[in-house]
Amino acid sequence: MSVDEKPPTVRAGLTQALRTMGYEVLPFKSTFDKVTSSVPTCVPLSVTASPGKTIGTTVDLAIALADKGYSVTPHLAARMVTSRTELKEIGARLADSPVTSIFVVGGDAQQAGPYGDALSLLRDIREGGFEFDAVGIGGYPEGHALIDDGTLSRALAEKAAYADYIVTQICFSPGAISRWADALARSGITLPVRVGVPGAVSREKLLRITADIGIGNSARFLRKQRELLYRFFVPGGYRPDRIIDGLRRDIDAPTSPLSTFHVFTFNEVEKTEAWRQETLRRLGASGS
Question: Which residues contact 128 (CB under 8 A, 6 or more apart)?
Fold first, then answer.
């Protein structure tokens, strides 16, 4: 069945997910201009905390984009926060800005301060009195290359008490995502889930990006992202439609926690937005 042949209820659910999906961007010098020139302000944004950069770089870009009318969520990577003093400074800056949400993750950098994981940072954020409209945490439908499944499940349950939604790491199997979401609901975690998918990015761009953020040769990165690299370099490559189309019924099902999509753009925001608009047109929806 093609996109245009989907039943009306499934088409409506998928259309809503495409309209509410957010874009993740990397904090490069060119990012601000790329986003403001090609992404409408109705698209939610998140800014990564990338190895080779600083938390300050992430916060700077998030605030600059929020000042332009975007809904922006900065990533706070626990291992990159150098001290509790820095955390207080970050909280104060965000409190004085239009930014009202954060995404908390452990991160891939070497531990630079008192926080070795997302949970410890989440606890200090709450105990420090920082208030945000929404707090996001990460989920791993196919597990984590460096953490066993039991530890990962316990950590997610503990973090869920401090969070409002979950964003999954990239997973190319709709079936695995669906099964993970079902297990999540059975475990008693009721947070809505935003499914992480790569955007319309070329393999050449992926290589340049990983080199620019200083993680292209990182063993930690390569262990975590083997499947990502494989999918981009096999003949035929990758299209985001394959994952999204495979989850169309889950997105529409009232019992599924899957709510929308979170697009890892790798800063290919113009191509990703063009793909989103074209997909909306194929669904018979006006672009927005």
Answer: 87, 88, 91
